[in-house]
Design brief:
The chain is mainly β. It is elongated.
């Protein structure tokens, strides 16, 4: 049994492959030796000015035996008549007679000759020295670094640095702005005598407010975030910052911010001579917990001078804490199911799910999986049942009747409908309500008259038909599901919004505590960045959106970084949907933007649909009796007129919703179709299906049965008006020697739970 992974922070169109697009949707879719310096001995003996150094030195008087300085390099005084004994060191030393000038050692570290009565002008060095009295030979300290005498009477104090200094050669990305890369002005976001710019890092780095005007998404509620604080220049040199975190006016905690040199590392991968890049060389940072990132959040920043500035709760905008449920299956239609290392979501659902989760504005993601399936018989929408080969002779990656009717409609749409309590629908139609953000990804292969083909490179409408569930193919095809077309924002050949730029947002990977750049690290810069394709400081090109031929160039992700534009216009709105909630009396909750919190809702079905049979007496969606449990999903097709049908072998999955489903009307005067489920205790449960053809010859059915309740057999029946019932198909549910893998990676509030 494969794995099901939920991920939470508290989440069709045919593609044409090209050089630019990884996948398309179907719809709109030096080292040098040191030379000893030439030293001119002074004629007079002026006081020596101390060297500029970070290691303190202690001046001595001329006639006093040397007292070693308090330093990490020890010094040892000698008796007056003792000749100099060479130090135990890798740098040779020459003994000094009372009136003999010092001969420099043969070494790559220069030595300066001394005369007994002449004070020495010290070389510019970072190592302090201890002055020596004229008549006292000194035993050199045991050290590999030469010492330089200082003037006897000048005390010097060298303070230790209070914070690290950023590498001069490191570039700060967000410290620059615009297409020309000018220095970015620091926006004042706080109220008080301390002023700074505030940002939050999640799937994108965003501002507290005003993101929509910049074509950027909002901060996602109930998902951990990186707090970034950039003091304005007027604040001067700052040695310490702390953040006080409040919820509804109550102080939750106080945390010290990491200085700018400690900002999380980037995902940079290039090893050429180009400069390294950090997100910022000016921003202080800390991580906010998921349960701090919600309505009522207030942040107060305090520095080491007790100046403070406040970001109030009214000045932080939030978006819905959306949830994504992704189910995955490998399906063989009249042949074996495809196998590939690229089936990342099935091969390693925990890692794959947490990886993709970092790219979207969702607070929770569940990655569920089914066992591989091979169908020996297949039913398509015209009512034909194949038992060896499909009649299609034009099948391919994008084509084939089993691709459309079985992989996509029956399995892709059907698994989703089963999780909303909908039992049947037209097989010819792929209509689904998208009540919650549920997506099915399937790797399907079919046997056709013109050969066997893997289907893939397609996505939209709650289903993904994939070759691989990693790389830009996955990011691109699920982008179509969110409603994105190709090159979003492109206008008359200007690709500024379709690709990344200075203000399209980096990302923050909370699992790895790394920054995700929007630069294309390996690509060498060419051109001048015209036609809407700017360059970063003439050094790096920007990455492309998943819908614009994007790819993953960073070190920590197998998925593409969406632009802020794409996320704002389609992806974030797609997560403003109902979510399953077992604590809700209706089974569902939804974000209230005005109250900035989740609240109970009662979703209504669309009674006018001609393609989906909701069978709701009161117009409400049913409440799941069991949520997110291991299930057998029963799928198949039937023709109520021709009275033929098929039940596929049970699909065993590790996540699904189970409902109390309506029973059929089996009176003589009524037409009726139903599934009859027999349990190990001989209990029988009849479940109503659409009694008539809905659109096309064949309908599809889809229900979830709880594995824990031990169902044993399923029968499919139909009856016409005033006629007896006819059994169309039957299956015995298999006995499994291997228990189902219950590992369900749930990324909720960023933590992965099993």
């Amino acid at each position: 049994m494969k794995n099901t992974i939920p991920f939470s922070a508290k989440a069709l169109s045919i593609c044409v492959v090209s050089i630019m697009l990884s996948a398309c949707g179907e719809g709109d879719d030096s080292t040098s030796s040191l030379v000893p310096p030439t030293v001119n001995l002074p004629v007079e003996t002026p006081p020596v000015k101390p060297p500029v150094t970070s290691i303190p030195a202690t001046p001595l008087e001329p006639s006093t035996p040397v007292k070693p300085p308090i330093t990490s390099i020890p010094a040892t005084p000698l008796e007056p008549s003792t000749p100099v004994k060479p130090p135990i060191t890798s740098i040779p030393a020459t003994p000094i007679g009372p009136n003999t000038p010092i001969k420099p050692p043969a070494t790559s570290i220069p030595a300066t000759p001394l005369e007994p009565s002449t004070p020495i002008k010290p070389p510019v060095t970072s190592i302090p020295a201890t002055p020596i009295g004229p008549s006292t030979p000194v035993k050199p300290p045991v050290t590999s670094i030469p010492a330089t005498p200082l003037e006897p009477s000048t005390p010097i104090k060298y303070p230790e640095p209070k914070k690290d200094i950023a590498d001069f050669y490191l570039l700060g990305f967000f410290d620059h702005d615009g297409r020309a890369g000018e220095i970015r002005a620091i926006r004042p976001d706080l109220v008080g005598d301390f002023q700074a710019m505030i940002q939050f890092g999640q799937n994108h780095t965003v501002d507290p407010q005003g993101n929509e005007a910049k074509n950027m998404p909002r901060l996602t509620a109930e998902k951990e975030a990186l707090l970034l604080v950039t003091p304005t220049l007027e604040m001067g040199d700052i040695n310490k910052l702390a953040a006080e975190i409040y919820k509804d006016g109550v102080l939750l905690r106080t945390v010290n911010l990491a200085d700018p040199t400690q900002i999380p590392d980037t995902d940079q991968t290039n090893t050429d001579q180009r400069a390294r890049v950090a997100y910022s060389k000016r921003a202080w940072s800390t991580k906010l917990n998921w349960d701090e990132v919600q309505g009522g959040l207030k942040i107060r920043i305090v520095d080491d001078q007790n100046r403070s500035g406040e970001l109030s709760e009214d000045n932080i905008d939030f978006a819905a804490p959306g949830e994504l449920v992704l189910t995955n299956i490998r399906l063989g239609m009249l042949t074996d199911a495809p196998q590939s290392w690229g089936h990342y979501m099935l091969r390693d659902p925990e890692r794959a799910g947490s990886d993709y989760f970092q790219t979207i504005p969702a607070a929770q993601m569940t990655v569920a999986s089914y066992d591989d399936m091979k169908l020996e018989r297949v039913m398509v929408a015209n009512g034909t049942i194949y038992d060896s080969i499909s009649d299609s002779n034009d099948a391919g990656v994008y084509a084939g009747d089993m691709r459309e009717n079985t992989a996509k409609s029956t399995f892709g749409v059907g698994i989703n409908l089963a999780n909303w309590g909908v039992t049947s629908a037209s097989m010819q139609s792929q209509e689904q309500p998208q009540l919650t953000q549920n997506v099915n990804a399937h790797h399907a292969r079919g046997k056709y008259k013109n050969g066997e083909y893997n289907h893939g490179l397609s996505g939209g409408n709650g289903m993904l038909t994939l070759i691989d569930s990693q790389g830009n193919e996955f990011s691109h095809e699920i982008g179509h599901h969110y409603g994105l077309s190709h090159y979003p924002g492109e206008q008359n050949g200007d690709f500024f919004w379709a690709e990344h730029h200075a203000n399209s947002g980096w990302g923050y990977n909370g699992v790895r505590n790394k920054m995700r750049s929007n630069l294309d690290w390996p690509r060498q810069v060419e051109g001048d960045g015209l036609t809407g394709k700017p360059l970063f400081l003439a050094t790096y090109g920007y990455g492309r959106d998943a819908m614009s031929g994007g790819s993953q160039s960073g070190a920590y992700s197998n998925y593409t970084h969406y632009t802020g534009y794409s996320t704002k216009i389609k992806i974030q709105p797609a997560f403003d949907k109902a979510v399953f909630d077992a604590d809700s009396p209706t089974g569902y909750k939804k974000w209230n933007a005005e109250l900035r919190k989740m609240e109970v809702i009662q979703p209504k079905v669309w009674k006018e649909s001609k393609n989906v049979w909701y069978n709701s007496a009161n117009g409400n969606y049913l409440k799941p009796r069991l949520q997110g449990v291991p299930v057998f999903t029963i799928l198949g097709g039937y023709d109520p007129v021709a009275q033929k049908g098929i039940i596929y072998p049970e699909a065993r999955g590790n996540w699904g919703n189970v409902f109390e489903l309506p029973t059929p009307n089996n009176s003589l005067e009524s037409a009726s179709c139903w599934l009859s489920v027999t349990y190990s205790n001989n209990t029988i449960n009849d479940i109503a299906l659409a009694p008539n053809r809905m659109n096309g010859n064949a309908n599809k059915f889809h229900i979830n049965l709880a594995i824990a309740e031990d169902p044993k057999k399923v029968d499919l029946y139909c009856k016409k008006v005033n006629e007896a019932q006819v059994q169309l198909s039957t299956i015995d549910i298999r006995q499994y020697s291997e228990a189902i893998n219950l590992r369900l990676p749930l990324v909720k509030n960023r933590a992965i739970r099993h």
